[in-house]
């Protein structure tokens, strides 16, 4: 599975990417993380990027495109990856399209985490406080002043990607204002609905998690856990059926407009699944 996570700073891309990594055994490719590592190691790229990053600007396209191209070729990315923080501009998205085409790889979906801008400052402040509490160094760009700049850059340069991927029928929008748990569940659900992940595998992971939780609890609760894992497997089966190709249809018949619309509202997504099941 190959995904892009799209959203402004503080929208939860990193958190959700980590959860997807654990669940599907794919790697998270965060250009921000890679650049921070390059800055810390004082590599030539890091030296170029350091001041730009500290000021909340964007590192030149050729640098980030080069980093991503090399990283995608690494053996651990063969199973799939989540791009977090890349692409950030339309030219980067076009370069990624080219790059994937050359490497004969296909992008499954772009998941947009939609959040209220007013909540972002608070989120970034919380992230900084938590980092400090762990005794780790706080990001130099996690300050209100720099965040304002990063948000402005997101609005003018990155937001056009919503239209870019929507036109290419890749965009899935999730309400990023829900709890972390809810957002994760919603992402997993829509990925299963469009057939990007094996619904059964998605549910198996859910079932295994429930069983593990149950194993650590007293008998009464453990039963509940088992019940939950059965329920989870059952719903996966249904989703699996729904995700199967329809006779005479394309492999993912409802991937186009309905899938996109479905991603925008949870209710609509459920309808799509039902429709598919009928088909
Ligand atoms: P992030 O961790 O994604 O918030 O990125 C931190 C900083 O790294 C950004 O504010 C940019 O300065 C730089 N950066 C990360 N990804 C990109 C990218 N795709 N294009 C340009 N600059 C980037």
- From the alpha-carbon coordinates, what is the Rg to the nearest angstrom? 20 Å
- Protein structure class: alpha/beta
Output the number of helix runs.
13
- Separation of the first and last Cα atoms: 25 Å
Oligomeric state of shown chains: single chain
**In which order are the strands of the major sheet placed?**
2-3-1-4-5
Task: Name the CATH superfamily classification of the domain at 2-26 and 79-115 and 170-207.
Answer: P-loop containing nucleotide triphosphate hydrolases
> Percent of residues in beta strands?
5-15%
* Residue windows where pLDDT falls under 50 for at least 5 positions: 217-279
What does this structure look like?
The chain has helices at residues 13-24, 31-41, 44-54, 61-72, 90-102, 117-133, 144-158, 160-167, 180-193, 199-215, 219-243, 257-264, 266-278, and strands spanning 2-6, 27-30, 81-84, 109-114, 171-175. With 279 residues, it is α/β, with parallel strands linked by helices. Helices cover 63% and strands 9% of the residues. The chain has a domain at 2-26 and 79-115 and 170-207: P-loop containing nucleotide triphosphate hydrolases (Rossmann fold, 3-Layer(aba) Sandwich), CATH 3.40.50. It is built from 13 helices and five strands. The relative contact order is 0.12. The chain is globular and about 40 Å long. The longest helix is centred in the last third of the chain and has 25 residues, at 219-243. Bound molecules: adenosine monophosphate. Residues 9, 31-32, 35, 52-53, 56-59, 64, 85-86, 88, 92, 141, 150 line the site of adenosine monophosphate (AMP).
